[in-house]
Amino acid sequence: MNEQFQSLDQVKATAIDMAVKFGPKALVAAAILVAGHFAGRWVGAMLGRLLRRFRLEPPVLALLTRVAYLVVLGLFAVMALQNLGVELLPLIAGLGVAGAGVALAMQGILGNLAAGLTIIFTQPFHVGDYISIADEEGEVLDISLFSTALGHADRSKVVIPNRKIVGEILHNYGRIRQLDLTVRIAYGADVQAALRALDAVLRANPRVLPEPAPVVGVEGFADSGAVIGIRPWVAVPDYVPARKEINEAVLAVFREQGIGIPLPQREVRMLGAA
To answer: What is the per-residue pLDDT across 81-101, written as a single tens digit (0 to 9) for each?
Structure first.
C-alpha cells in the first residue's frame, strides 16, 4: 500500500511539475492559434476583395480565400509549436519525405490542380458559357480546382478533369448561340414573301434575341427548290426549344400564306430493250 501511495504521489508531483512548466506555454500557444484564426479570416477577406476585380467565379473565389485562411492559420500553428518547444526541423523533414511519396501517388490529381489554376487565372470560359471541349459540349455549371462540370440540354451533367481541358482546342460559344435552320421553297414561290414571313416568325418568338440581328436569306439551290437559311441568336438555355418553336411556326405560316414547300422528287426513266 505504501508503494502505491508513493507512486500516486510521484504521478501528482510529475503532473504538477508539467503543468507549471508547460501550462503557460500551452496557454500562449492557444492564444496564438486564436490570433491565427482571426488573422486568417482578415487576410481571406482582404484577398477576396482584391480577387473580385479579376471577376473570378464564386466557387473559385471562395476556395482561394479559404486557402489563404488555412495558410495563415498554418503559420500561426508553426509559431505555437515553436512556443511549446517542439523541434520543427525533423517534423519538416518527415513531412517532405511523405509529401514526395504522396506527390508520386497523386500525379493525376496534382495535374488536375495545376490545370485548374491555369483555367482560373487565364479564364478561357466562365460559369454560364456554352463550350465544346474534349468531344463534349454543354453549359458550364461549375469550375473547381480539379474538374469542370458541364450541363446538357437533357439535364444530364458531365464532369471533365481539368487536365483534359488545358492544352485542348476549346470552342467557347459564350452565353448565346446561333441556330442553324433551313427551309426549302418551290422555285415558283414568291421569295420576298417567304423572307417577310420568316422575319415575322422570328420577331414573334420571345426566345429570339434582337441583337445580334437574325440572318435570313437564300443560301443555296436544291433539286426541288431554293434553300433559305434561318440564323437567329438565342440564349443557351433556349437553344433546343427555340429550334422546335421556329420550325413549327415556319410550317404554319407557309401553309397559311400558300408558300409551297416542295416534296422530294425523283425522275425515273424506263429504257426500252435494244
So the answer is: 777 766 666 666 656 655 555
The rounded distance, in Å, linking the Cα atoms of 46 and 6 is 58
Range 176-257: architecture per CATH: 2-Layer Sandwich (3.30)
Enumerate long-range contacts of 203-206, CB under 8 Å, 24 or more apart: 204/249, 205/232, 205/242, 205/245, 205/246, 205/249
pTM: 0.60
- The residues of the chain that CATH labels 2.30.30.60 are 124-174
Q: CATH for 11-115?
A: 1.10.287.1260
What averages of pLDDT result for each successive group of 10 residues across the chain (274 residues)? Answer: 56 60 71 84 83 70 79 80 69 60 58 80 85 86 86 86 86 89 87 91 92 88 86 90 92 88 73 61
Taking the C-alpha atoms of residue 162 and residue 225, their distance in angstroms, rounded to an integer, is: 48
Q: Determine the distance from the C-alpha atom of residue 111 to the mean position of all C-alpha atoms in its chain, rounded to a whole number.
A: 17
Query: Cell numbers 476556395 correspond to what residue?
Result: 63
d(CA 80, CA 74): 10
Residue of 187, 127, 116, 186 lying closest to 151 (CA atoms): 127
Give residues with Cβ within 8 angstroms of 218, minimum separation 6. 191, 226, 227, 228, 229
